[in-house]
Amino acid sequence: MIRPATSKGNLLRLGFLDPDAATAALGLLGDAAEPLLALLGRTADPDAAIAGLVRLAEAAPEPAELLQALVDDEGTAMRVLSLLGASEALADHLVRHPEQWRELTDSRLGATRPAAWAMREALLDAVAGKPDAEAVDALRVEYRRQLLRTAARDLTHHLAVDDAAAELSDLAAGTLEAALEVARQRVGPDADQARLAVIAMGKCGGHELNYVSDVDVIFVHAAAEGASEDAALRIATQLASHLIRICSDHTAEGTIWPVDANLRPEGKAGPLVRTIASHRGYYERWASTWEFQALLKARAVAGDLELGEEFVEMTRPMVWSAAERDGFVEDTQAMRRRVVDHIPAREAERQLKLGVGGLRDVEFAVQLLQLVHGRADERIRPPTTLSALAELTRGGYVGREDGEALHEAYAFLRTLEHRLQLHRLRRTHVVPEDEASLRRIGRSMNYLKDPVGILDKTWQHHRREVRRLHEKLFYRPLLTAVARIPGGEARLSPEAAEKRLAALGFVDSRSALRHLEALTAGLSRTAQIQRTLLPVLLGWFADAPDPDAGLFGFRRISESLGETPWYLSTLRDEGQVAERLARLLATSRYATDLLEREPQGVRMLGGDLRPLSAEALTEEMLASSRRQQEPEPASRAIRAVRRRELLRIAAGDLLGLIDVADVGAGLSRLTDATLEATLEVAGRSVRAQRGLEAAPTRMAIVAMGRYGGFELSYGSDADVMFVHDPEPGADPQAASSYAQGVANEVRRLLALPGPDPSLEVDADLRPEGRQGALVRTLDSYAAYYAKWSKVWEFQALLRADAVVGDLGVRERFEAMIDPLRYPADGITEDDVFEVRRIKARVDSERLPRGADPHTHLKLGRGGLADIEWTVQLLQMRYAGSVPGLRTSRTLEALAAARAAGLLDEDDAAMLQQSWRRVSRVRNAVTLVRGKPSDELPRDARERAAVAAILGYPADSSDAMLNDQLRYTRLARGVVDRVFWGD
Length: 982
Prior knowledge:
Elements: H1 8-14, H2 19-29, H3 33-40, H4 46-59, H5 63-72, H6 74-86, H7 88-96, H8 116-127, H9 132-157, H10 161-187, E1 194-200, H11 202-205, E2 215-223, H12 229-248, E3 259-260, E4 273-274, H13 276-285, H14 289-295, E5 299-303, H15 305-319, H16 328-341, H17 359-373, H18 385-394, H19 400-422, H20 435-444, H21 451-473, H22 476-482, H23 494-504, H24 509-520, H25 525-543, H26 547-561, H27 565-573, H28 575-585, H29 589-597, H30 614-626, H31 631-654, H32 660-690, E6 697-703, H33 705-708, E7 718-726, H34 732-751, E8 761-762, E9 775-777, H35 778-787, H36 791-797, E10 801-805, H37 807-821, H38 829-845, H39 864-878, H40 890-899, H41 905-929, H42 940-949, H43 957-978
Parallel strand pairs: 2-3, 2-4, 7-8, 7-9
Antiparallel strand pairs: 1-2, 1-5, 6-7, 6-10
Helix pairs in contact: 1-2, 2-4, 4-5, 4-6, 4-7, 5-6, 6-9, 8-9, 8-10, 9-10, 10-12, 13-15, 17-18, 17-21, 18-19, 19-21, 20-21, 22-23, 23-24, 24-26, 25-26, 25-27, 25-28, 26-28, 26-29, 27-28, 29-31, 30-31, 30-32, 31-32, 32-34, 39-40, 40-41, 41-42, 41-43
């Protein structure tokens, strides 16, 4: 007969998933089954708990005694059953050592944390007097016995996570001591020649160890009295090596945990043990910032504790002055990025430790605050994360509400980590995806109703909170320090706020503090919104190459827009706009200047940043200019559109949304539209001045150079030639005078002082250069080229593209020059020689004094000039017979040369990649510096910004330079073969 309590329905309600197996197991428990049933239903995995209890009863020498004890004492029953339901590994241990179930009958387990010395003594007693192999196994059994007690207390009495972690750390310290004792027995009498201290690092050192974790250590040794230094080093190394193996080796009783000594000076490459003097020498001369951050948790735990304390005292001043070291900010930011970068992609969303919103986010932020402020405030130096967080909160470095929320989130994440590892005593930080595992973990955390749903909801909530607070933690108290607002929250002093800013990477932290004061002072709505925005903005500024410029630019734009209603609300409500703005301001002076001149452009950052077509731009510019009566206001209207579009292209480039070819094309189309609209304004102006109703001639503007090649960069002039064709019956002199006036008016209007970057119209490539007429007729151009022109002028015409003005004039001009620049039979060998001679002269005479020929972007070896002259020589020689070469664009000509077999695949690819690379670098330099330059910046911050624009990770400016040299070196090899014929 089935009793109601053990019916299938009741078993399912209690949490059993396999009621048939549970019924069979309960039958084996006899009269103990029904009294224990409700308690089984409160365990993490009732099925595993009942199965484990059956196994334990079968293994126990007195099973009746075991079951009766569970029935008689609910505390004992809950400790045993909770352990069996939550930890498969400890259940297996109990079955191997069934007598240890009695450890869980101790009524003091629920209320008393065991003393560290008592745990240590029990571990030492376990190994004392035993042969080596027996001692190693005994150490494991005793370690598990004490771990049983800790886990049972944790599961049943829901220990505070820091209490459980501290108990596990004490147990680890005692285990290291006992393992060292076994190591001494292995070494024999000579062991007394060395004093050896074991320094716990990381979680163990901070008294916050997990159930399963590597135990990070550093070994310090000294010679015992009367012993030689050499002997002491040899013996200490033996002791340390044996200790590591004793804890890490697998035996019949399993393993304990790995002992990891890789945090020692020089890591794996360094000696396993060092003296205090050797450690001091390393830390004073060679140590990286992260090594001092690691020493924050150093604690002497085993061996010669007096020697260990001496080591800790030696390192303490170094730890608390680490924030003053050169490169502190860069090192800490790089370490933070490495943590994220090392997460396998398949684990990123379920990584409890390293993932976004994980344990490391909390620990990193807390430690960074400690390092910045701990030198002056000893209260915030505790090595344990939650203790340090509490002191940071009490000291006003973290807001009270934020401190409480972060404490709750971290405690939850550590508890989840403990439950995750406890099941099989494996070192893991990846939250499983299968429902059975999630159900077990959720129930172990007392989520008995809907354990999977509540666990996931709670975890996601805390992840979001940790990420939010991680971003906010370093910045919010800073604003509280400068915002003159009432409230009970403690505030940072100005000095502490300056230190915080310096740690973020601000070079002029005092000025940065003044900017924050100006932005956040007062009780206005604007100031309130700024206080909401700035914590996140400061984080973005800090991650960019120039935080000072970012904050200063943001202040100027904010003051410019003042009370504009959409500005701050857009930044507050549209995160993408705020992030893009922060990145632009802290990376590019060019974009910042444009934003300061065109602050309305902030709105554009939330939309499509691809360049507009020339047709759309021309239509808008013409419409804007036609609303103005006078030429100057009309020109300013055109230039305002150009200014806005320069910002669009620069922003798209900086944010990696458009390709370098798109940048060149976009800037060229923008110049087309600007010249087209300005040509119309200039024509109206000249006709009005001269009282003309109609123009006596039709005009066109021919793009030349990089403009003609559709390859403009941000700092390029607009190289052009002006051409006109008189109307039938018009007086040639009057037509020429009119065309000359229009051309001059175009140049004047575009050169007028204004808030936008100037567009210099350079007509020096015209026949006879500056000495020749500014404007010529089609017939005049034809006559000149037929009689006077040289090979270099035909070369210049390769990039001629008649793009602006009267369509008929443009078409006739290109038809006239095509036979000249694309000769049917190519150029002669004499012409080839002349081209090479001119290039040699350019190489020797035009490189600026002091410029590095290896890195100059335009005229250096493998630079733009090398590549473009090589392509143009191929065009002059073969375009007459290869139609694909008849183009003004370098990349198109390269593709055509490869298709025609004039370049092999590798050479063509190399020139193409190098041209794109150098063009990108050239654009990036202008974006960073705000003015054109053909040389890589020497300033470290500017060079880092160039690397960032090119997509390199932080701290990679050297890698960027090395890549640049490699590209240009390989390109030069191709140029030597193809252009010079070497």
